[in-house]
Amino acid sequence: VSDFSFYNEKVKEKTVKHPCYNGCNHENARMHLPVAPRCNIQCNYCVRKFDCANESRPGVATRIISPGEALEKYIQVKKTMANLSVVGIAGPGDALCDFENTSRTLRLIREYDPHITFCLSTNGLMLPDHADELDALGVSHVTVTINAVDPEISAGIYKYVRYEGVEYSGDKAGALLLQNQLRGLNRLIEKGIVCKVNIVVLKGINDFHIPEIVKTVKELGCYIVNIMPLIPVQGSEFEHLPAATVQEIMKLRRECGRMIRQMHHCRQCRADAVGCL
Ligand code: SF4
Ligand code: SF4
After folding, report:
1. 174 in ligand 1 pocket by Cβ < 6 Å?
2. Where are the beta strands (DSSP E) in 123-193?
3. Successive 10-residue mean pLDDT values, the chain, 277 residues
4. Ligand lying closest to the C-alpha of residue 30
5. Which of 82, 89, 132, 170 could bridge across to 95 with cysteines, CB 3.0–4.6 Å?
6. Distance (Å) from CA 79 to ligand 1 centroid
7. pLDDT at residue 1, as a whole number
8. CA 211–ligand 1 middle distance (angstroms)
9. Given this model, what pLDDT does residue 52 score?
10. Which atom of ligand 1 is nearest to the CA of 92?
């Protein structure tokens, strides 16, 4: 269902070797480098922790590392993991909120290894500002989490959005975030970057609206969508919201799979995950 003819040969090859963008690829490994601790929005389901070694979900890392430490870690892991094909920045905050750290990390690793695939995930707020630089840094795969394409629905998902020194809430926050997410995705797609959209299913809040999100990002030219259940986290606004069942997720993926390629094997990894899926 996704049009692959749009991408150049190099990007196609990198996509085939990317464990998250290519079906059941368990042969290639990925490595998340936790260099980005801060975030510019507050999702009602998120609690970021930096010291938890036995919890497995996005937003969690044992320790934040500096770009220099990230390079050292990459060099060490690459020595023992010959199938390491992707380096990703996935927080534990937002990769573009801490763009200095993110860009420096990628630059250092690129100097050391011209071939490794770069992947990054973001809430998309800062994408219009940084899309061109991501391309210049050689980032070929970007994930944007979009939980609504209607600002009224977003108002129930995000507590605030901070942009250019101003804090927004309610519909205004939702409208601003959405505008930047869509503009940013558009720019990335123009550049030939492969885009994935993550959607967290929030029962009673956005579950009925998910086909609409998928339709919107499909029309923009995104490659794949990852519909994921909420992980209700203690201390978050949504700690008591029930997670979608496997059957509910499968139903949504089946429905949306008519429009765009679906990811079925996401493990909702930590911000410092290393290895095969
Ligand atoms: Fe947490 Fe990511 Fe949402 Fe920021 S964008 S609040 S790090 S889930
Ligand atoms: Fe891949 Fe999902 Fe893990 Fe990201 S969280 S590395 S998309 S499996």
Report:
1. no
2. 139-145, 158-163, 166-168
3. 61 81 78 94 83 56 90 95 92 92 97 94 97 96 97 97 97 97 97 95 97 97 94 90 95 96 84 82
4. 2
5. 89
6. 32
7. 41
8. 22
9. 44
10. 7
Per-residue pLDDT at 234: 87
- Model pLDDT, residue 76: 95
Nearest to 32 by CA among 43, 19, 16, 17: 19
The pLDDT, as a whole number, for residue 47 is 85
DSSP 208: G
Ligand nearest, relative to CA of residue 162: 1
Is residue 39 within 6 Å of ligand 1 at its C-beta? yes
Closest CA to 198 of 144, 120, 148, 263: 144
- Taking the centre of ligand 2 as the mean of its atom positions, its distance from the CA of residue 183, in whole angstroms, is 24
CA–CA dist 6, 193 (Å, integer):
10
Query: For position 146, what pLDDT does the model report?
Result: 98
Q: Name the 3-class secondary structure at 63.
A: coil
Strands (E), 14-90: 29-32, 41-43, 84-89
- Give the domains, in start order, of the chain with CATH numbers: 9-264+268-272 (3.20.20.70)
Give the residue, by CA position, lying nearest to ligand 1 atom 4.
Answer: 39
215's torsion region: left (phi>0), alpha (psi -120 to 50) or beta?
alpha
Tell me which residue has its CA closest to atom 7 in ligand 1: 93
The closest ligand to the CA of 274 turns out to be 2
